[in-house]
Amino acid sequence: QKEVEQNSGPLSVPEGAIASLNCTYSDRGSQSFFWYRQYSGKSPELIMFIYSNGDKEDGRFTAQLNKASQYVSLLIRDSQPSDSATYLCAVNSPGGATNKLIFGTGTLLAVQP
Amino acid sequence: ETGVTQTPRHLVMGMTNKKSLKCEQHLGHNAMYWYKQSAKKPLELMFVYSLEERVENNSVPSRFSPECPNSSHLFLHLHTLQPEDSALYLCASSQELQGAFGYTFGSGTRLTVV
Q1: Selection from B13, B10, B17 nearest residue B80 by Cα
Q2: pLDDT tens digits, A47-76
Q3: pLDDT tens, B16-41?
Q4: Chain A window 23-42: which residues touch B at a Cβ cutoff of 8 Å?
Q5: What is the spatial distance between Cα B73 and Cα B92, in angstroms, rounded to a whole number?
Q6: Residue B51 to residues A10, A93, B64, B67: CA-CA distances in angstroms?
Q7: Fewest CB atoms within 10 Å of the CB: A33, B1, B20, B64?
Q8: Taking CB atoms and an 8 Å limit, are A98 and B102 in contact across chains?
Q9: Using CB atoms, which residue from B50, B103, B107 is nearest to A101?
């Protein structure tokens, strides 16, 4: 059973701080990795994807991938109350008729003003 | 209209009813998906379609019946559902079946079975 694990939280950080969200995955054959943000009552929205080991930065967001350790993380710098949401980690794993996105349960982030 | 649109946004149905969920994507994508999202559970992949052909069915009960008449439209027909089927049903699409650039999700249908 291919799995993606996340701490459900809530992760509470003060406004302006760095929020660090972590995710581990079980399938070593996984090829691409995604972070989605989901506001309460809304659908998931893609914010970052990463394919290669190392860091990828986009504005206040940095995705980090370590395939040897099978973890991927998301850093949010200068956290804002509007960043409060559930962050879903998704891993694209080959297998069956198609690659498929396997999702974690998500980490609830609460940014305190 | 842009992106992926789903209707209805909310649906309440009895266990003996028949209803359908509709999804339409305006992105020119070739693959479409149905996911189920229940509280405190990961998104569960239900069905995968590529260019109108079903390529995956993840052991979903037969009371859920998908239909993909063309590459832009996807339906989920529901009949004799159970209360545990109450959940958020999300449609998604991707450029190609491999989903290398991730999926774009619709706003979802919140289903309540009474």
Answers
A1: B17
A2: 999 999 999 999 999 999 999 999 999 999
A3: 899 999 999 999 999 999 999 998 88
A4: 31-32, 34, 36, 42
A5: 11
A6: 40, 21, 20, 12
A7: B1
A8: no
A9: B103
